[in-house]
Amino acid sequence: MIVYIGRRLLAVVGILLVICAVTFVIFYVVPTDPAVQACGKTCTPERVAEVRAQMGLDRPLWEQFGAYVVGIVAGRGECGVPCLGYSYQNALPVWDLLVDRLGTSVSLAIGAAILWLAIGTSVGVVSALRQGTRLDRALMIATLTSASLPVYFVAMLLLLFVVRITGLLPYPAYVELTDDPVEWASNLLLPWLTLAALYAAMYARLSRAQMIETMAEPYIRTARAKGLHERTVVTKHGMRAAMTPIVTIFGMDLGGLLAGAMITETVFGLPGIGRLAYDGIVKADQPVILGTTLLAAFFIVLANLVVDLVYAVIDPRVRYS
């Protein structure tokens, strides 16, 4: 197991280095003048020259890349550890901007993930066990409809009916969990439901297909022939095998959302990383875009590492493959 974990950690380091190289080329090599992209279109020529010197653009590319990678783990002159760049438009290190928004995005992602995982897998399992019935058809029509609706459309519908017409909930205004847990949950409920409506539909269809395939396996018939209770057959033997692909998809989806849900955060006005990335794109703030890209890549790679380790626990054969 230790050898397997070591191999996976080395692979993660290699992947992150490749991501750093790709982002360096995109943000430092491709632009005609990266200093102009970092400083913004409103910067004076004198300010651009200062930014160019601070970014070390007068040095060879290999030295720039070395400083870029080392800065992430050891910091640079304009920012501390980890140095993901300096936003000249905000006059702050990008990492400080990300940390300030990270709690919102993590709260949004984890809350929505719990909802869509619980709802999606439950609907999928029930539909699979009632395959061909009216309940199965009704659930699949509902999930197909939910998956077809754009996120912003669902968000606007919820705001219209839940906030404006019925007044059941106030317009979302993010409150820190430590300040008021009840207000924190009530203000995030609509964003959670918006994301869960999309992801739960996809998880329901995937878990249904996997459950139908698993329940037709010979070992399921053997378990039933031994006289095991149907609940034991479904939960212990059926769901454990059927949920393996769900773990993979869940890790990737959660990893992506931890770096911000741009549309959801923008519609509901949540101060998360997705909203920060949107503002960076609108303002052409290159360091912010680069920082959010690196953070998103890190979360996705980390989520895949966790999924691999969970696989090794569920199925020991994975360790030796």
Short description, anyone?
By secondary structure, the protein is mainly α. 75% of the residues lie in helices and 1% in strands.
What is the overall silhouette? globular
CATH architecture of the largest domain: Orthogonal Bundle
Main-sheet strand order equals 1-2
Number of helices: 14
End-to-end separation? 12 Å
Features:
single chain; 321 residues; mainly alpha; MetI-like fold; 2 domains; 75% helix
Overview of this structure, please?
- The chain is mostly helical.
- It has two domains: 2-94, no CATH class; 97-320, MetI-like fold, CATH 1.10.3720.10.
- 75% of the residues lie in helices and 1% in strands.
- The chain contains 14 helices and two strands; from the N terminus they run H-H-H-H-E-E-H-H-H-H-H-H-H-H-H-H.
- The chain has helices at residues 2-29, 34-39, 45-55, 61-74, 94-129, 134-148, 151-165, 181-215, 218-225, 230-242, 244-258, 262-268, 273-282, 286-314, and strands spanning 86-87, 92-93.
- Strands 1-2 form a two-stranded antiparallel ribbon.
- A hairpin with a 4-residue loop joins strand 1 (86-87) and strand 2 (92-93).
- The longest helix has 36 residues, at 94-129.
- The protein is globular, with a radius of gyration of 24 Å.
- The N and C termini lie close together (12 Å).
Write the layout of secondary structure elements.
Elements (H helix, E strand, L loop, with lengths): L1 H28 L4 H6 L5 H11 L5 H14 L11 E2 L4 E2 H36 L4 H15 L2 H15 L15 H35 L2 H8 L4 H13 L1 H15 L3 H7 L4 H10 L3 H29 L7
Antiparallel strand pairs: 1-2
Helix pairs in contact: 1-4, 1-14, 5-6, 5-8, 5-11, 5-14, 6-8, 7-8, 7-12, 8-10, 9-10, 11-14, 12-13, 13-14
